[in-house]
Design a protein that fits this description.
- This protein is an alpha/beta fold.
- The chain has a domain at 1-142.
- It has helices at 2-5, 18-24, 55-60, 62-74, 95-98, 104-136, 153-172, 174-191, 220-226, 228-240, 278-285, 297-302, 305-319, 339-352; strands at 29-30, 43-44, 204-206, 245-250, 269-273, 289-295, 325-329.
- The longest helix has 33 residues, at 104-136.
- The two termini are 28 Å apart.
Amino acid sequence: MLLDLEPDAYGSAMVESGSVLAALDSNYTRWPGGNLPPDVGQQVIEQEFMKEDEYDLFLSDPSDFIVRYWLPRVFGMMQPLSKLPPLMNISTTLGPMTALFASPEFAQFAKSLKKAGQEEVKWNKAMGEFDKEMASFGFPQALPARGGVQPPFSGFTNNFRTFRGAVRDMYRQPDKLKAALEKIVEYRIARAVPPVRRPGKPTLGNSGEAHRVSDEILSPKQFQDFVWPYWKKAIQKTLDLGYEHVSMFFEGRRDKQLEYFMDYPKGSLLIRMAETDIFRAKEIMGDRVCLMGNVPILMLQMGSTQDVEDYCKKLIKVVGKNGGFILRCSTDYTQEAKPANVKAMIDTVNKYGWY
């Protein structure tokens, strides 16, 4: 596919090995060829892996909560971890606790964990070989944003409370929700490190609330109260660490959020847009931000090649005026896109995307 279409770059699969997920007995992920048909994309099964009355447990010791509560719920093979004593109680008198590890369930836990590790080694090797093969053909990886500080809201709703649970918490226990978000972002700030610099290459960090914070989902006040304070800290820390550019992905529409990103240094933000009005974003942000997007996936699936060429030409002419624009589809996933339409998108860039 890559050799046929010849895009500017490629991205490795940012998903997990199905064999690893099977060994871990994941309660969160469904994957093609495993518990899904081979031609159906990866899915998640959203669940409250953290209950609404467990904020105090999480806030008092997040690591203990993750090991003894969260992991056993997310991965079936890790249920024995729920029998461990609180991590803060573990001391030099470790002997009595070791009896747990002699039980049949911990023996099975160790066996499954070893199996998962072996499969992960195979997966990493296969992906590394794929990357080498692509490099031999001259394809660079797309936007290797590494490092930086990720804000907490999307991840917390994905992995702990679910979106429905978090919205209930906004009304029933907002202070605890804010405390959890603050705890996560402060931990990430404390653990963040400066970029690795390579001669002639800019440093690109990542700091984005990819989803669940769009205009369709949160009101401006909810965004202001529960998202922006922590996201702002994450972006600023990423810049303070020395990253020259900060990359972020705006899923959904973010027309009401654009003004929040106008106070950062010119050229410091790379914002990829999905359904946001990218033409209006260009009007507002001008040359302060590099914009990326936003050929609709539905157009690639259902439109004509002429539809694609006309839209891409408009993006290049309007959003690409005076530079600061990267054209790409609106999402990472182009399932069921017409190959001819994907080719039309790339051909239009080759035809019109020159200065």
